[in-house]
Amino acid sequence: MAMRKAASRPVEMKAVSEETRTIPDPLKYRPEISKGTFFCIAFLLLLGWYFASVMGFGTMFSVVMSTAHDLLLNTCFYIMGVAVLAGAVSTMFTEFGVTALLNKLLAPLMKPLFNLPGVAALGAITTYFSDNAAIAIPSQDPAVAKYFKKYQWTTMLNFGTTFGMGVILAGGVLGIKSGKFAACVGIGSLCAIVGGIISTRMLMWKTKRMYGTTAGVEDKYLNANTKKVPAGYRQIRSGSPMQRALDAVCDGGKAGVKLGLSVIPGVLIFTTLVMMLTNGPSMVDGQAVYQGVAYEGTGLLTMLGDKLAFILKPMFGLVNPQSLGLPLTSLGAAGASLAGAKQMADAGTIGMHDMTVYFAIAWCWAGFVSSHASVADALKVRELTTFAMLAQLIGGLAAGVLANYMALLLF
């Protein structure tokens, strides 16, 4: 018995030593309980304590749930509706060769400005008439993506944000004071596009180093598998032209539904947080009161903007310091900032200069803080989110500085 036990010991020791030498990949695995566990708990407690200390514990939960619910009904389903229509049009364009025609006609414009193929203009049009998330519809169409290299395609994250919310912001400002600020829209649009060029080019500098300049767009990023097609030709559906059109519209609409579902988590999580950090309490009879309704917040981002006014005011040349809150609000929600611009215009506290600077920044940023993560998730390029946000931030600041000097020359 003793000899048997002794003989078995080396085997046991060998097994243990082999087990201890097997270390899981630290990039994929962590111990079940690590420092990150306690950092996560501390972060959530700190965030909850901050909101509860300002709003009250019960009010905080009411605001979170009400905001998320309203975003789901009025934002996410709106995006899904736009995505379905945009997907139908995009697929129809592809089926009948309009996409290829756009690529040839607009390449001389898109290439020198954004270093993108002409077909990227389809994404600009789609997002201009809707929201940032709509860029995923044309981008994920294999018939569109084939014109891109991977390093170019991934920059559609910032390219789409540059043009997103365009018609909403332009229409909103044009409607103030019976078109009094129409010149601001024209000048601000030009400056916003320049900011978008800077943002897109900055991100492209990053993607070139990550993906190289020769790789194409893989099928894992697209809504369908790429099919080999002879050069200079496009693949079409079977049937008569009417049948092909119906099939294309239905297929594109289905892709839009998938996109609408994919952006819901990002919109609800990040937009709710940004809104609660941007907005203030409700105003009842001229007094700030927390009612626990949607879109109330602590106003932290606006307060930080006031603290940085000594830097931002010289950059943008704002005549009224209160105007600074408008572009800061547009970081999280461009539409919400539009309401503030209208209030200031009705009160006579914002002029042509400040409106131009505001519009340039607001359109270039288009609420990217609350949408970039969800759009990056839809495009399956989460690894670019942080750098893309930094590039979009710089692009918006550049748009504001340019708008400042152009407004000083013209007004």
From TrEMBL:
Organism superkingdom: Bacteria
Protein name per the record: Transporter gate domain protein
Residues spanning the membrane: 38-65, 77-102, 156-174, 180-200, 259-277, 357-375, 387-410
Keywords carried by this UniProt record: Membrane, Transmembrane, Transmembrane helix
UniProt KW Disulfide bond keyword: no
High-level lineage: Bacteria, Bacillati, Bacillota, Bacilli, Lactobacillales
